[in-house]
């Protein structure tokens, strides 16, 4: 945030250079601004007030592997579960880089910046990058990649100033809005590549594919629609591998009576132990306004078509099954709704969402579930956490209803903030070696495959320069110098 502010304003010609002590004072002042930004209001719940602050903190406290697996999951969904060539074509048109090469290069830099934090380095030199990535990746590819995910400070300053012109004067919500550096997480310096924070680098690199595809998806056909189908196929696969015999949408709708055959239906239905689970998959991500606002009306409007709409869908489905006298439908008290989103909306449960919306807008949640469900039986979970739940069920030999019952009972005592906390606590109660598993077997396999490709390229390139030097050190130095100069020239021209 400090760097964004510095780049946004023009420097005072009489400004003094800040030493480390002065810088610390300024950073503390900036930190203390959160007290102004939080804006406690007696008409708002404490959770609504604190939510933007907690979300911002959680983003920088989650394990880095979570972000690396996000990248692996995107690759898995787009290459193995997606049936349309449109998303990959759209991405490669937008970037000029083969999709799988982009994934591997993203993993390289994400790992490199994770190591930087441990060894207290400030940058990755261009010499190091070339020694590890060239000639497996052409100079053209490397330059394209770096200028897509990174920027010089001067260019960043211009972009930040333009952003301010578009967004208008600063608002309190801006304090909790994600950093602009997530869009271009790397800093291109004269002697190497750096970043404002290792988490900025890791998150920005892992989400770059998603952000790019959303930016070039004007009609939904090149990304959102095929991705939605891929997301649903993946969830189906998770159910199958876990042994949960769900009834899928098409089969469930066949149970409807003819006069109500056009009623809405959920994506999956599961019945066991005298309980029902209505599952709806939403391959969506929260807009920044949903995560940074303290305005319940804004939250309601932004969630209406997805998170609230999913409850309406489940209500109509339950009503249709009831009218059709479906054999497996149980009493209202024993029906659950689980909404699985692509990324976390930090809502957690139906009760939490109703509390966030407050007295003015909370009734929209009551209307959505109607008389078909109890609000305490409604839960929201992101796909990363749902993968963790599936792992717990398999390793702990428990049912999904035991997990949901645990979440419901936990909420009557003291609700937790996000679903990862419920997963972790439940895993601890089961006394599992890994109480908070991350990633499905398929995601881990996708990650391992990319990592092996990176290792192979790394070893090949290191061997190339080592063997060239063993034959003739002068030739090796001259060739590396030529490659380096060509790379820096191409990078400089691309930046301009």
What order do the helices and strands come in, and which of them pair?
Blueprint: H1 2-8, H2 20-32, H3 34-38, H4 46-59, H5 64-81, H6 86-95, H7 99-119, E1 124-125, H8 126-133, H9 139-149, E2 150-151, H10 153-167, E3 186-189, E4 192-194, H11 198-215, H12 224-242, E5 247-248, H13 249-253, E6 268-272, E7 275-282, H14 288-292, H15 296-323, E8 335-341, H16 350-361, H17 363-369, E9 378-382, H18 383-396, H19 400-413, H20 419-429, H21 441-471, H22 473-495
Parallel strand pairs: 2-3, 7-8, 8-9
Antiparallel strand pairs: 1-4, 3-4, 5-6, 6-7
Description of the structure:
The longest helix is centred in the last third of the chain and has 31 residues, at 441-471. The strands form two sheets. Strands 5-6-7-8-9 form a five-stranded mixed β-sheet. The chain is of the alpha/beta class and 496 residues long. A hairpin with a 2-residue loop joins strand 3 (186-189) and strand 4. The model has no long low-confidence stretch (mean pLDDT 93). The chain has 22 helices and nine strands. Helix 7 runs antiparallel to helix 11 (198-215), helix 7 (99-119) crosses helix 21 and helix 15 (296-323) runs parallel beside helix 17. The protein has helices at 2-8, 20-32, 34-38, 46-59, 64-81, 86-95, 99-119, 126-133, 139-149, 153-167, 198-215, 224-242, 249-253, 288-292, 296-323, 350-361, 363-369, 383-396, 400-413, 419-429, 441-471, 473-495; strands at 124-125, 150-151, 186-189, 192-194, 247-248, 268-272, 275-282, 335-341, 378-382.
